[in-house]
Design a protein that fits this description.
2 strands, elongated, about 200 residues, mainly alpha
Amino acid sequence: MPEGAYPLTFSVDYPDRSLDRLTTALRIFTVIPILIVLAALGGGQANVGLAFAGILFIPTLLMIVFRRKYPRWWYEWNLQFLRFSNRVSVYFALMDDRYPSTDEQQSVHLEFPYPNVERDLNRWLPLVKWFLAIPHYIVLFVLWILAVICVVIAWFAILFTGRYPEGLFRIVEGVLRWGNRVMAYAFLLITDRYPPFSFS
């Protein structure tokens, strides 16, 4: 990871090709089966974008506070669950016309390092990180509205031209990146670095 970079990195490959117009037109229906899978993994609740329901938050918080540990398999679960939920989000946002895989990264690249709890994390900060992130929730609420507008415009563009306008693509990608960084800080608890107010 480059020096000074935020611990969570996220990117989506821009589809520099014609996208499938039929599956784009019917995306609201074609996404339903994979949303059911995501909801089943998340304990019956699917929240496209953040997918908070499937993240191991409370157990991780308690382990960091009382044992100063982040169990490796909990880290792996959170990483893989967040990758999967982002593949579903990217598919739903029309950014890729390949059906979301449950295990392959496809066009979505999300990484964050395994935290060294004793060296890198304050044991008491997880109790308030969710609260400290409130300014981000407010900004993200507005940005999600912008992202939805971009996706609707992109839907029409894909139907008529077969292409996702790159400017709209980068806005939606930036909103997803922002949301994932807030998730890493406030709920995955993998870093104490406050997320930047930035798309990049």
